Model the fold of this input.
Amino acid sequence: MSVGTNTKLEIGTPLELPHLKIGNVDIGFPVVQAALSGYSDWPMRVIARRLGAPYSICEVMLDKFLVELKERKRTSHFLHISDEEQPVGGQLMGSDPAQFAAGAMKLVEAGFDVIDINFGCPVKKVLGRCRGGFHLGQPDVALEIIRRTRENVPREIPVTVKMRRGINDSNESEDNFFEILDGAFEIGVAAATIHGRTVEQRYVGPSKWEFLRRVKQHVGERIILGSGDLFTPQACLNMILETGVDGVTVARGAIGNPWIFKQTRALAAGKPQPDPPSLHEQREVIREHYILAEILYGESRVGALMRKFGIKYSILHPQYEAVRADFVKVTDRQQWETVLQEWYSEDLPGVHPNGRMHKAQSSCE
Done:
């Protein structure tokens, strides 16, 4: 089984889902927002939180960047968090164990509640610099990174690790995966997030949920979160029910559709799957997102930075192609409001994203 479709949820019967806890960080509802390179900044995380995500992780940052980061207005957004969104995780990746541990301390000092180590990014330029998923092919270095990070980070701050199921489908790759996973838990990580694709797959082909089931059976009571192909509320719940994982992290499925968290909560409570948000509901959240981004980035920068979010939000509009084309042109708040006036003034029903969401790829989820 690759993508769960067989579990039938009964209307009126709440599901008995795991209560998610990562170390001493109490999260509760086991459907959270993943780290999304280029997307999961403070505004996106706050919107997700307001729409039902109990926990989110910031976009991945390089250890070298964090160590050398100066307190400047132009870069302050990287470490910006607020009380409203906590608990929140900080994710980083790199190649040198000592520098990695130093970068983790920067995230601790900024106030992140969990430190997440990225061994999953499949992007070519990242692999070429011996970062992200590259470490799945060198267990000794991977475990040294985890060890130094865990030693540096205060004990009360949980350390977690994000992995894909290996570099490729070879037996050696699988052996390396389990050597790193077992070693990570022995060192003291509080949880591991496993993406059901290999590094070589990137985003092509299905995420193997049966591998997640094997991993959870292998580790027993240790905390495993699943990732991959979570584009609907049903899929989020099916992954938990069919694989036994303790929770799931929604990545591409949350870009432009933060309502997925609210909808998943409703479905888990035994209610019918909610309709997609109406155009007025969408308009209010899209406008709210822009205002938050303007607070963070400033009026002069926010227009260009928000285009990618407008493009993703358009997937829920019945006239997706035309709305998307107008969001592509946005450069400032006035133009943003013009798009909302043009396409969101009449309160029509929204649409479920369907296959459109699969195109919303992040570089390092």
Notes: Residues 275 and 320 are 17 Å apart (CA to CA).
